[in-house]
Design a protein that fits this description.
2 copies of one chain form a homodimer. Helix content of chain A is 36%, strand content 22%. The first copy, chain A, is an alpha/beta fold and 385 residues long. In chain A, helix 6 runs parallel beside helix 7 and helix 7 runs antiparallel to helix 12. The first copy, chain A, is built from 12 helices and 15 strands. Chain A has a 9-stranded mixed beta sheet. Chain A has 2 domains: 188 residues, NAD(P)-binding Rossmann-like Domain (Rossmann fold); 159 residues, Dihydrodipicolinate Reductase, domain 2 (2-Layer Sandwich), CATH 3.30.360. The interface between A and B is large, with 42 and 42 residues. Chains A, B: This is Gfo/Idh/MocA family oxidoreductase. Chains A, B: It holds the Pfam family GFO_IDH_MocA_C.
Chain lengths: 385, 385
C-alpha cells in the first residue's frame, strides 16, 4: 500500500486530470499524445490510480468488491464512509486508507475538501443511491453506484441531472458487463456464431434470509430496497437480455407470486417471471426469485446454435456451452476479475473523459423496464415500453 | 413374429377380454383372481398381447414408435393403415403383419370386422385425430392417439364422447409420462426432495424444415397441424409443467413472435413464450420455438433444491442434475423404452378395464390451455383458466 502522503499528491494530480483534457495532457513529457491516451502520458504506475471512497461497508463491499482493488491498475481505495467507526477503522488499516479519510453519513459532504477522493462508489441500499449521488456530485466527485440504480425512474433522472450539472461521471456497477464470459457471449452473438437470435431465457434466484443474515434485512424492506427479487437479482436477467441482444425491449408481460404469509414477502415480491419482446423479434423469458436455490444462468438461442452460461453472472467459475446440431461444446476461457475491470473502467472514464459503458442512462433504462414489469404483473396486461 | 392365424385367434380372445370383466376372468384357471390382475390369468406370454393398428406410417411411427413394439409385453402390431400401399406392404413384411390387415383411409371403417385389431393408434396430423377416433370407436376399437389430441376443445370433447358411447378406452400418447427420468422427477418432487415447489422453466424447440423434409410439410399447414410450435412441441413444456406440479394452471400470459416473411410461418406460429400460474403459487415459464436449435429441457425449482432435466423429453439419453446448496449432483438412472411402456399401459388398461393414465380428458386439458395461450398472446392479456 502507498503511504497516504504519496497518495494525496497523486490523487490531486489525477483528480485534476479527470476534470479537463488540458490538465492531463500538459502534465508530462508525452503531452503531444492524443487525449484518448492520457494514461500513456503518466509517468509511473502510481500516478495512474484514482482514489475511490467506498460508501457502505456491507458484505458485498467488504467480501467481494474491496478485495478486487488489488487487481486494479487505475483504482485505489482512499476513503471509507460508514456508520460503524470501528468497522471503518479496521478496514482502513487493512486497505492502507488514511484514518483521516474515514467519513460517516453525517459528515460525508465534507469529502468535497478531500483531494484523495476522485470517485464515490455507493454501495448502499438502492433507495439511498439518489441522495448519495446528489451529495457526491455536489462535493465535486464522480459517482459509481451499485445496481439497481435507484428505486424510481425519477430518482435515476435526478442522479443523471446532478452529475451532468456538476460535470462529473456517473456509472452504474453492472459487473457482468465487465466479466469475460459475458463479454465473450456478446462477441459471439455479434459475430453471428448463433445465427439469427430467436430467444433468451434467463433465471436468477437465491434464498433471501433476512433473519439468519441481518446484513440482508434491508432487502425485504420496501422503503430501502424499492422492491424484492426483481430489483436485486432479476435485474441481472433483464440487463443480460438487453446486452445480449443489444436491443431495447418494446413490450413486457409478467406474473408475480409472493406468499404473503411468509414474513419475508410482506412488503416485497418473491418470484416474478417476465417476458420481454425486442424489435428484432427476440423474446426473452426471465425469472427472478427470492425463495429458490441459487441460480444465475441464461441461454441464448439462435437459429444455428445456442449459447448457455450457467452460472452466467456469478463472481467466478462461469460455465459456457455452445450447442449446435453437431453437438455441445464446452468453451474454455480464462476467468477475469470483473470487479477490477469495472473499477478500472470507471477510473479510465474519468482519466480519459469518456462516457462509461454503463452510464446513468443504462441504469435508468432498467429501472423504467422494472417499473413496467411491476405494472404488467399488477394489471395482467402487456405493457408497452 | 407370430403367424397370422395364431394371431387372429389370440386377438379374438383378447379383444373380448377387453370388452367385459366376465370374458377375461372366466377365460382361464385363475378366474378367481380379482379383475385387476387378469394378466395373471393368461395362460402364456402370447395370449397377453393386444393387437394394434397403426394409422399413419410417417417418420415418427416408422422410426421411433413401431420399433418399440419389440419391447412390449402386451402390445403387438397387427394392422397398418396408410395411403401408401407399397410402404404398408414393406412394413407389414418387416413387422410380420398379415397383408390382409393393411387398410387405407377409404376402407378403414371395415377394420370393425377384424378381430386382430383391439386398439387403433392414430399417428396422423392433429386435425385428423378427431375423425379417426370417431371412426375407430364406431368400429368398436379402443383408441390411442398422438398428441396434441386435436386442434380444438370441441374436437377433443367429441373424441371423449364417442369413446365413452362406444365403451372404448381413449388414451393420448404422452410418452414423457411413461419415461423413467420424468417419472423419477415426479417421484422426487412428490417426496419433497426439492422442498416447496416455487417455479418451473421448460423449453422446447427445434428447426422445422418443411422443404428439406417433405414429411414435415404438414407441420406448417394450419388446417392440418392446428397451430405451430406450441401444438407440436410446446405441448411438452405445458404437459411437463402440469405433471411436475400435479396441479392445473389457473392463469396464463403469453407472447408470440413469428417472422411472417419466412414462408414456414405464414400460417402457424414460430416462437411462443407462456407463463402459467398454479394454485400453489408455482409459476411456470415455458418456451416453444420452430426456429431454434433443438432443446427439450426443464428445470424445477424448489426452496431446497432444483431438479434439472436436459434433455428432459428426448427419446433417449436423458440427463438429470439435482442442485442443492451443497452443490450439484448427477443422477444415474437406467434409460427405459418409454414407447413400449406407453403401449403396454394402453394394452393393460384395455385388458384390466382401467382408465388410462393419460386419458382423453388429459389431452383436452392441454388443448384448452393451448387455446388460452393463443388468446393471451393475441390479446396481450392474462387469460383465466
Amino acid at each position: 500500500m502507498l503511504s497516504s502522503s504519496t497518495t494525496e499528491s497523486r490523487r490531486q494530480f489525477l483528480r485534476q486530470a479527470g476534470l479537463t483534457a488540458a490538465v492531463a495532457t500538459v502534465a508530462g513529457p508525452a503531452a503531444a499524445l492524443p487525449f484518448s491516451e492520457p494514461l500513456a502520458a503518466m509517468q509511473n504506475e502510481n500516478q495512474r490510480k484514482l482514489g475511490f471512497a467506498i460508501v457502505g461497508l456491507g458484505k458485498f463491499a467488504t467480501q467481494q468488491m474491496m478485495p478486487a482493488f488489488k487487481d486494479c491498475k487505475h483504482a485505489n481505495i482512499t476513503a471509507l464512509v460508514s456508520g460503524s467507526p470501528d468497522k471503518a477503522k479496521k478496514l482502513a488499516a487493512e486497505y492502507g486508507v488514511d484514518p483521516k479519510n474515514i467519513y460517516n453519513y453525517q459528515n460525508f459532504d465534507s469529502i468535497k475538501d478531500n483531494p484523495a477522493v476522485d470517485v464515490v462508489y455507493i454501495v448502499l441500499p438502492p433507495s439511498m443511491h439518489m441522495e448519495y449521488t446528489l451529495r457526491a456530485a455536489k462535493a465535486g466527485k464522480h459517482v459509481l453506484t451499485e445496481k439497481p440504480m435507484a428505486t424510481s425512474v425519477e430518482d435515476c433522472q435526478k442522479m443523471i441531472d446532478a452529475c451532468n450539472k456538476a460535470g462529473k461521471k456517473l456509472m452504474v456497477a453492472y459487473r457482468a458487463q465487465f466479466e469475460p464470459f459475458n463479454l465473450d457471449a456478446i462477441s459471439r452473438i455479434k459475430k453471428g456464431e448463433l445465427g439469427k437470435l430467436r430467444q433468451i431465457t434467463a433465471d436468477h434466484g437465491r434464498i433471501v434470509k433476512p433473519t439468519e443474515e441481518p446484513a440482508e434485512a434491508w432487502r425485504v424492506v420496501k422503503k430501502l430496497a424499492g422492491g424484492g427479487s426483481l430489483m436485486d437479482i432479476g435485474v441481472y436477467s433483464l440487463n443480460a437480455a438487453r446486452y445480449l441482444t443489444g436491443e431495447e425491449p418494446t413490450e413486457v408481460t409478467a406474473q408475480e407470486f409472493s406468499d404473503k404469509s411468509d414474513p419475508r414477502f410482506k412488503e416485497v415480491e418473491d418470484t416474478i417471471h417476465f417476458t420481454l419482446r425486442f424489435p428484432s423479434g427476440v423474446l426473452a423469458s426471465c425469472t427472478s426469485s427470492y425463495s429458490i436455490q441459487e441460480v444465475k444462468r441464461y441461454r441464448v438461442f439462435g437459429d444455428k446454435a445456442f449459447l448457455d452460461l450457467d452460472p452466467a453472472t456469478d463472481y467466478y467459475e462461469h460455465n459456457m456451452t455452445i450447442g449446435t446440431k453437431e453437438g455441445d461444446m464446452k468453451v474454455s476461457l480464462k476467468e477475469g476479475n470483473q470487479f477490477a475491470a469495472e473499477l478500472d473502467h470507471m477510473a479510465e472514464c474519468v482519466l480519459e473523459n469518456k462516457t462509461p459503458k454503463t452510464p446513468g442512462e443504462e441504469g435508468l433504462k432498467d429501472i423504467r423496464i422494472i417499473m413496467a414489469i411491476y405494472e404488467a404483473a399488477r394489471t395482467g396486461k402487456k405493457v408497452k415500453l
